[in-house]
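Hey L., structure's done. Input below.
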Amino acid sequence: VQLVESGGGPVQAGGSLRLSCAVSGFTSSTYCMSWFRQVPGKEREGVAAIGSDGSTNYANSVKGRFTISRDNAKNTLYLQMDSLKPEDTAMYYCAADRVYWWLLPRYNYWGQGTQVTVSS
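Output:
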């Protein structure tokens, strides 16, 4: 099982980025998946999650600005991030599991992360 994130980088406040998480080793549509973020010295924070049935959950801090989605044909998970703020700066990770852990960091499989830096 492998998860590989991409799409991070520097962006100005108010801008947008789309993160991707390429999945291999399992069929992403059968798994529950989530995006987390972490800054040094802080706990990993759940940002958005999607169940195997397509249901979604978002942290209050990103509701209305971030959208999680999946392309089952490409076995890829996405996070569209709009109206970015400096406080969104973090390392972003995708995670997967057969169990839907919502926004809890209990997923079995994790990627290596992609850095997002939002400047004011």
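The chain has no helices and eleven strands. The longest strand covers residues 17-24.

-- N.
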